[in-house]
Write a structure and sequence with these properties.
The structure is a single chain. It is built from eight helices and nine strands. By secondary structure, the protein is an alpha/beta fold. It has one domain. The strands form two sheets. Strands 1, 2, 3, 4, 5, 6 and 7 form a seven-stranded mixed sheet that branches. It has a two-stranded antiparallel ribbon with strand order 8-9. β3 and β4 form a beta hairpin. α6 crosses α7. It is globular. The relative contact order is 0.17. Bound molecules: zinc ion. The site of zinc ion (ZN) has 5 residues, from α7.
Length: 275
């Protein structure tokens, strides 16, 4: 499924590759750094993009979102789908502590805005509300950590999710997709809904309360797919898949459940083992 890329790809994505720093945080890698670079640094996104199986999970375009013509999956790298490259295949990393039997999911969510009517204070405010929303991922409703069974061992799950405001990230050269960074453009238009592309970047509506879509959209950053139908002709509108009622991926304000954690980490380890 993975191909080594061409020189053209290298040229266009050199900056991203330069920013790839995966060696110290990979708990599961058996590659040397040099091998990792050749195997992963130049993974050819074009191949995966056209894989229908991966269209649903990996390229996660949210039907709960309105279509936004200014942002397409093609603007990720050099504005050309044939050169789209996922420099490391990841949007978060898992650090495994074998002694403590913990796994820490680490991700950065970097907020910026292309809007000229939204200032830094408003971005900071949104960041505050997104934090409250994403908080739902960190523990179960009894305050207990999630767990994950990896190769017969049970790990306790920690999160290290940083929500950062970077007003300069509207400049493309400022955005470094280094494996944990996810760049989110904040849209102040109240009528706009949130969307995540390619797991790692997207546009979210400005948050005005802790009831916002970041909890659901963060699920997409963890590779999770939507679990609802978008039935425009139905009075119901968005209908959760059977059995997914009340779940964060079936309903915008649904709760996070153990199965979400399990699915995200299953996908993470499967991807790493494929490499
Ligand atoms: Zn969604």
């Amino acid at each position: 499924m993975y191909q080594t890329s061409t020189n053209i790809t290298q040229k266009y994505c050199q900056e991203m590759h330069y920013n790839y720093v995966g060696n110290s945080v990979f708990g599961v890698s058996t590659f040397t750094e040099k091998e990792r670079e050749s195997e992963i640094g130049y993974s050819y996104f074009g191949v995966r993009y056209y894989d229908s199986d991966l269209m649903t999970g990996w390229l996660s375009v949210d039907p709960m979102a309105d279509k936004y013509p200014g942002l397409s999956p093609y603007n990720y790298c050099a504005w050309n789908p044939i050169r789209l490259v996922d420099p490391d295949g990841e949007d978060f990393k898992v650090v495994i502590n074998e002694r403590k039997k913990t796994m820490t999911i680490t991700a950065n969510i970097i907020l910026y805005t292309k809007s000229s009517i939204m200032g830094k204070n408003e971005l900071e405010n949104s960041a505050k509300y997104y934090r409250q929303s994403i908080n739902a991922w960190f523990k179960d409703k009894n305050g207990e950590s999630w767990t994950y069974n990896h190769k017969g061992k049970i790990y306790s799950i920690d999160f290290n999710v940083n929500i950062i405001v970077d007003t300069q990230a509207k400049n493309k050269s400022r955005r470094h997709y280094n494996g944990i960074n996810n760049y989110i453009d904040i849209n102040p238009d109240d009528g706009f809904r949130s969307i995540v592309y390619n797991s790692k970047f997207g546009t979210w509506a400005k948050a005005i309360s802790k009831q916002n879509s970041a909890r659901h959209e963060f699920g997409h950053l963890l590779y999770l797919s939507d679990r609802y139908y978008d039935d425009e002709n139905s009075e119901k509108g968005y209908v959760p898949h059977k059995g997914w009622e009340g779940n964060v991926m079936g309903e915008r304000y649904g709760e996070v459940q153990q199965r979400n954690i399990t699915e995200a980490l299953d996908k993470y380890f499967k991807r790493n083992e494929e490499k």
